[in-house]
Design goal:
The chain is mostly helical. It is built from 32 helices and no strands. The chain has three domains: 20-39 and 93-402, no CATH class; 486-549, Tetratricopeptide repeat domain (Serine Threonine Protein Phosphatase 5, Tetratricopeptide repeat, Alpha Horseshoe), CATH 1.25.40; 555-640, Tetratricopeptide repeat domain (Serine Threonine Protein Phosphatase 5, Tetratricopeptide repeat). It is elongated, with a radius of gyration of 31 Å. The N and C termini lie far apart (112 Å).
Length: 640
């Protein structure tokens, strides 16, 4: 009878555990259901769209050997995950979003396992497995559906945070599973592997070996020395994972990390006092959420005194709890240790604050909140946790709608942070891509009102004015930044386009030449220079430029067409026909190429071929007057 009751309890606990797992997965899927259709935004393009290293899964060395300065340099495991996505869906974002959500789900389950097994070290408070499942479920559920996680999950480029978080939690989970297990060696080898993989995702993983040791000291060994004595081989292995991280971290200054980047350690430290307190506020009340907080830092001690005092009180209480070897103390160390690489005195120059950095630290806040409520209400607190999870999930679902486009996320950011020039610039650039040039120009002007020296904003304003037909104003913007930026090939190119459109062809040719002197491998500048020379009747020179452009970009139908026009004027009919045919092969709907090929064929006496080309041009573009006139003339000539 006793054995039957024991088995019934085990079965009940197992059912409860699986029900919790299913609920976590379903709730997370529901909260992020609206994220799969979102496009790539902002850094997603440098990580994915413009990253040739992820285009092939084999050889793997090509994925891992990212060029220094690449967006995923020093993060080979992250790069491999993106390459797998590219193999699945190319540049279609759905699989990247699905993978991000899947990673987050696995991380939530790992957190559930970590908390549940950690509570087993507190038998007085949680004597039975069922007693441990419910609070662990509450922590993992609230963490998984919390709106603060949206940046790390919905924004593909922040996979670095969530994937690192998964390996971080797996490292701790496998360590805990190994304690007292007959398969301790196997579990601890898995912990080492997880830790090593995490080091290949993001540098914040550097704190994982330390947190394993802190967990051991708090819940199992009793002291740091005892933990090291009992499991010295494990800690030696974990410490060895730092060595590959050191190699992967070379050149972090390229990403705006470190000193000598215009920030002092103390101004950054003062700023982070406010940042960390604000992180805690957002964990408790996630509004408003901001995609980009800008680069401003606090420069006055007076400004930061309230935040520093608040942080000192929180950190002091956490340290006191840590000294007493309590679970709250472990949560406090978890929170501050994981934030320390980005929220201490080492500047992350271009991003002092980012909500994605709270991905793992949020688990500590959730755990403390659940512990506080559980200590008062016990199992009666479950409906309260479910209601909180429902509310958080609804907010998360709504927040995901802000990621539906570049314009929507940056418009939201500008509304939250109107003093952020980078947000105005990004919103303007997104609007310009949609050819909403008047709106874009206003955003570039807003950027310049905050930061008059922003080169990119002034150049983009010039481009918006150019597309609006305000050529003189565009040229004025370009000239205002030309003297301090004489080596900018794109700026010279933009000036050439404006001058060309204004009919000042000789000046345009000069600007194209300056652009190409700086960047000789720009096919568009070569092609446009060729067109300017062609209009000045310098046909041979134009043909040379087209030829170079074609060598740089052989799959351009337009360049083939332009070269065909040049060689036709020089009497090379057969060569011209070959260029027109290649243009048509690359772009079968190129009506102008069909008409010009028809003209060459007519001049060569192939009337039937010419008629076929003119008719094809009219099929593509029924209102094409030149094609209709040439066809009529050719038929009339045949009738005579």
């Amino acid at each position: 009878m006793q054995l039957t009751l024991s088995r019934d309890k085990e079965a009940s606990a197992r059912s409860l555990r699986w029900a919790a797992i299913l609920a976590i997965l379903l709730a997370t899927a529901a909260a992020y259901q609206g994220s799969y259709g979102g496009p790539f935004i902002y850094d997603d393009h440098s990580w994915i769209t413009w990253n040739p290293a992820i285009r092939h899964l084999w050889p793997v060395s090509g994925i891992f050997a990212q060029a220094r300065g690449s967006a995923v340099y020093g993060r080979p495991v992250l790069s491999l995950s993106l390459a797998v996505n590219y193999a699945v869906s190319g540049l279609s974002p759905w699989s990247y979003h699905a993978a991000n959500t899947g990673i987050h789900m696995l991380a939530a389950l790992a957190l559930f396992g970590v908390v549940r097994r950690t509570l087993a070290f507190l038998p007085a408070a949680f004597p039975a497995e069922g007693d441990r499942t419910m609070p662990a479920f509450a922590v993992a559920l609230l963490w998984a559906v919390h709106p603060l996680q949206t940046e790390a999950v919905t924004y593909v480029a922040q996979r670095a945070e969530s994937l690192m978080g998964l390996f971080y939690l797996l490292t701790l989970y496998c360590f805990i599973r190994g304690l007292g297990s007959r398969k301790a060696r196997e579990w601890h080898l898995l912990a080492l592997l997880s830790c090593l993989l995490g080091m290949g995702v993001k540098q914040v993983m550097v704190t994982a070996p330390f947190m394993v040791l802190v967990h051991d000291r708090t819940f199992a060994a009793g002291t740091f020395m005892n933990a090291l004595r009992l499991r010295w081989r494990l800690y030696l292995g974990l410490a060895c994972t730092w060595f590959p991280l050191l190699g992967l971290s070379a050149g972090m200054s390229d990403f705006g990390v470190g000193f000598a980047l215009g920030y002092t350690w103390w101004t950054y430290g003062l700023t982070e006092c406010w940042v960390v307190v604000h992180y805690i506020f957002l964990a408790l009340w996630p509004h408003p959420l901001v995609f980009d907080y800008g680069t401003d830092v606090v420069t006055s001690v007076h400004q930061t005194i309230p935040w520093a005092l608040a942080l000192l009180i929180i950190a002091g209480a956490g340290f006191a709890a840590f000294l007493r070897r309590t679970a709250i103390g472990f949560a406090a160390v978890w929170f501050f240790a994981i934030l320390s690489p980005s929220s201490s005195i080492i500047p992350v120059a271009f991003e002092p604050m980012a909500e994605s950095r709270m991905y793992l630290p949020l688990a500590a806040v959730a755990a403390v909140a659940v512990a506080a409520v559980w200590s008062v209400l016990g199992k009666r607190s479950l409906p309260l946790f479910l209601a909180a999870a429902l509310a958080l999930g609804i907010v998360t679902h709504g927040r995901n709608s802000d990621y539906r486009s570049d314009v929507s996320i940056w418009a939201d950011t500008v509304s939250r942070r109107p003093s952020n020039p980078r947000a105005h610039l990004a919103l303007g650039s997104s609007l310009a891509l949609q050819e909403r040039n008047e709106e874009a120009a206003k955003q570039f002007e807003a950027t310049l009102a905050i930061d008059p020296g922003d080169f990119q904003a002034r150049r983009n304003l010039g481009l918006a004015l150019y597309h609006m037909g305000r050529i003189d104003e565009a040229l004025a913007e370009y000239r205002s930044i030309a003297q301090p930026n004489p080596d900018s090939a794109p700026l010279h190119y933009d000036m050439a386009l404006a001058l060309d459109r204004a009919g000042r062809t000789d000046e345009a040719i000069g600007e194209y030449g300056k652009a190409l002197a700086i960047d000789p491998a720009d096919p568009e500048a070569r092609n446009n220079l060729g067109s300017a020379l062609y209009r000045k009747d310098r046909v041979a020179d134009a043909a040379i430029q087209y030829g170079i452009a074609l060598a740089l970009k052989p799959d351009s139908a337009q360049i083939h067409f332009n070269l065909g026009m040049a060689v036709a004027r020089m009497g090379g009919r057969e060569k011209a026909a070959a260029q027109y045919r290649e243009a048509i092969r690359l772009d079968p709907g190129y009506a102008e190429a069909h008409v010009n090929l028809g003209g060459v064929l007519a001049d060569s006496g192939d009337d039937a071929g010419a008629i076929a080309e003119y008719e094809e041009a009219l099929r593509i573009r029924p209102g094409y007057a030149l094609a209709r006139e040439d066809l009529a003339e050719l038929k009339a000539r045949g009738a005579r």
